[in-house]
Structures are given as C-alpha cells and as structure tokens.
C-alpha cells in the first residue's frame, strides 16, 4: 500500500474573495436577510411628478425659520428679565463696516491747535485758480527772449532771419518724425550711344534684368544664373 500525502482541501472562494461591496446591505453571500423593498426591476413605481409637487412638507419645516424675518424692527426694547437671544440680537450684522474698528483714524481734538500752529493750511495746487501746466510756462520762457529781440520799429523782419527760423523748424520736425529722403528713381534709359553709361544705370539695368518676369517663367532666369555660377552651364 502506497503512502500518499494528505491533500488539504482548497479554501472556499467566498471566504477569500475581496470586493468593494462586501458586507453591504445587498451582499447575499454574507447576509441571510435582504430588504427586498429596495430591490425592483425596471422603472420604480413611486410618486408621480404631480404628487411630488403637491407635497408641502418641506414648507412646514421651513416656516418657523422664515417667520423670524417677517417683521423688521430697527430698535428692540428689552423688558426686564428678557435676554437678547430671544430676539436674535446676538447675530452678527453683516452690513456693519468694521474696517476701522481696530485703529484710531479719527481726529484728536486735544492736539488740533498745536498741529495747526505748526502746519498752516494751504490750498492744494490743483485747486488754485489761474494755475497753468509747467510745460506751458517753459515754452513761454523760451519764446520771451525771441520776442524781446524783435525790433518793433521794423514793419517787416529780416527775410534771411525768417528763412533761417523756418529751416530750423523744418529740420526739427523732420528729426522728430524720422524724415527720410526720397528714394532715387531707377534709371535704366541711360545716355545716348557713344557718351558712356553711368555706374548707376548699369546697376539698375542688372536689377531689372534679374527681376524681369519672375512669375511667368517660374524663376528660370534665377536658377540659370545659379547653375552658371556653379559651372554647370558654360557661359
């Protein structure tokens, strides 16, 4: 007779399983009794929408809370023996501004006279009458010497001086606006034959030849120049 090892029985699957619904009210593997009233198939047959809207139970529950806000009283006179809690006076008033409660921001009358004696009252500059901006005063100061130099005996000033001032104003305006001279027009006509051509004319012709018909021939001229520069096409 052969001696075979004793095989231990396998543990029950329900005892070793782990599930998020273990020991809940619907765990039929660990409970013998389950509330069947909470289990149904399909759409639950309960109260209709009309019955739900006609249910005024929540109104009765909140009625006592809103009755305290029905009457608005500015001043409540407490009778002897009454506590403020009966009228809800201990509640915090949210409309009260407590920004400056912790600091003394008001004026102190005890040191008011000494403060006024040290620092006399002055009208703010913005409230003074006849006040002009500083930049206007500076412009007036600059124009005064020019006006003083004018000879009032002359009916017409010196034209040379007027032209000089106009040129100075024009140069100043061009400097502020970033004046640029007009670009030189392209001159490709040149001079008559036998008189030679200027270097500017030669450069303008080369630019015109390089940029001629850049769209219709699909840039063939530029590519040909590129191949010619690399030695691929004999020149």
Derived from helix and strand composition plus strand pairing, the structural class reads mainly alpha
| Proportion of residues in extended strands | under 5%
Terminal CA distance = 111 Å
| Count of DSSP strands | 0
N to C succession of SSEs: HHHHHHHH
Compute the average pLDDT.
72
Most strands sheet: none
Q: Please give the share of residues in helix.
A: 25-40%
Draw up the topology in text.
Layout: H1 13-16, H2 49-54, H3 57-67, H4 112-118, H5 134-148, H6 159-177, H7 199-210, H8 220-229
Description:
The longest helix has 19 residues. The protein has 8 helices and no strands. InterPro entries: ASCC2. This is Activating signal cointegrator 1 complex subunit 2.
Keywords:
mainly alpha; single chain; 8 helices; 235 residues
In short:
This protein is mainly α and 235 residues long. 36% of the residues lie in helices and 0% in strands. The chain contains eight helices and no strands.
């Amino acid at each position: 007779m052969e001696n075979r090892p004793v095989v231990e029985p396998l543990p029950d699957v329900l005892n070793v399983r782990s599930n998020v619904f273990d020991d809940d009210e619907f765990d039929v593997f660990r409970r013998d009794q389950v509330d069947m009233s909470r289990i149904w198939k399909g759409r639950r047959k309960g109260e209709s929408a009309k019955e739900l809207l006609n249910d005024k139970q929540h109104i009765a529950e909140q009625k006592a809370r809103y009755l305290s806000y029905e009457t608005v009283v500015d001043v409540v006179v407490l009778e002897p023996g009454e506590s403020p809690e009966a009228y809800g006076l201990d509640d915090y008033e949210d409309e009260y501004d407590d920004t400056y409660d912790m600091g003394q921001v008001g004026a102190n009358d005890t040191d008011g006279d000494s403060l006024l004696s040290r620092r006399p009252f002055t009208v703010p500059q913005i409230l003074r009458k006849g006040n002009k901006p500083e930049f206007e005063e500076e412009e007036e100061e600059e124009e005064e010497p020019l006006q003083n130099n004018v000879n009032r005996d002359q009916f017409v000033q010196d034209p040379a001086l007027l032209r000089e001032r106009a040129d100075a104003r024009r140069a100043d305006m061009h400097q502020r606006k970033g004046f640029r001279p007009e670009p030189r027009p392209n001159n490709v006509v040149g001079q008559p034959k036998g008189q030679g051509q200027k270097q500017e004319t030669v450069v303008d012709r080369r630019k015109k030849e390089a940029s001629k018909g850049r769209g219709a021939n699909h840039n063939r001229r530029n590519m040909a120049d590129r191949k010619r520069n690399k030695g691929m096409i004999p020149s």
